[in-house]
Amino acid sequence: MEAMTAQERVDYDGDGLRREDLAATPLEQIERWVEQARSRQRERGDVPEPTAVSVATVDAEGHPDVRTVLARLIEPRGIAFFTGLDSAKGDHLRDNPRVAASFTWPAMFRSIRLRGLAVPVDRDAVGAYFCSRPWASRISAWASPQSQPVESREALEQAYDAHALRFPDRGRPDDVPVPERWGGYWVEPFHVEFWAGRSNRLHDRWVFDHEGGRCGDLSASSGWTVRRLGP
Fold first, then answer.
1. What angle do CA 153, 157, 163 make, to 5 degrees?
2. Would you say 69 and 49 are in contact if contact means Cβ atoms under 8 Å apart?
3. Could you give the CA distance from residue 56 to residue 209 in angstroms, rounded to a whole number?
4. How far apart are CA 46 and CA 80, in angstroms?
5. What are phi and psi for residue 51, nearest 5 degrees?
């Protein structure tokens, strides 16, 4: 394997994050950066899926696993994503709710890391979000045995077609019921880190840790200890 050349290195000439520019609460800083990522995507198109978040879980053997989902809710209690409850991540989180998550925006030299516990989203909120999805996406939730072996692409498409006939598109939010095996999880954090790339690898890292290692209200300015970490 050839060694990396100097030309392959990139200097992170981001804006950084000074203490005086850090928001008073984790929620405010998360919302600020997510909105700036959305604005950048609209203006430059180099931040696809601004709410994409990598979620790490641990399986029964203690092996970590990570995948990328979309953060659909960002609220004082944390961030929420939706998934098949019998998917690999669902199986992991039932046995071990410890979870980590990370937003990463390479074009902006920024990331947000969260560590905490996964808590199921209540069924009313699951239903409200499911009904907001496009009809085809709702059909896919029925057709896909998420994380399970699939015989072929053709078998998957046949399952989709069968459920499309079962739940035809009549233009109503209740055309397709919510599958029992479909739901969501809150990532309720006790640790939130904001990373901002700077030149010469002297990056800015600011961490909010909640008292006692307990999950905390992201919109509260009290109960959190703020520290700068070395890059």
1. 150
2. no
3. 19
4. 24
5. -100, 15
Dihedral sign computed on CA atoms, order 115, 93, 219, 198: positive
Q: What is the pLDDT along the chain (231 residues), one digit of tens a residue?
A: 555 555 678 888 888 999 999 999 999 999 999 999 999 999 999 999 999 999 999 999 999 999 999 999 999 999 999 999 999 999 999 999 999 999 999 999 999 999 999 999 999 999 999 999 999 999 999 999 888 888 899 999 999 999 999 999 999 988 999 999 999 999 999 999 999 999 988 999 999 999 988 899 999 999 999 999 999
In angstroms, rounded to a whole number, what is the distance separating the alpha carbons of residues 182 and 123? 10
| Cβ atoms within 10 Å of 180's Cβ, excluding its own | 9
CA of 124: how far to CAs of 128, 154, 177, in Å?
6, 34, 13
**Torsion from C-alpha of 128, 130, 135, 136, nearest 10 degrees:** 170
* Alpha-carbon span 190 to 171, nearest angstrom: 41
**Cβ–Cβ under 8 Å, residues 110 and 197:** yes
| Tokens linked to 72 | 């659909």
Q: Which amino acids are annotated catalytic? A: 201
**Bridge partners (DSSP) listed for residue 183:** 83
| The model's pTM | 0.91
Q: Which residues pair with 77 in a beta bridge?
A: none
Identify the helix (H) or strand (E) that includes residue 226.
strand 224-229
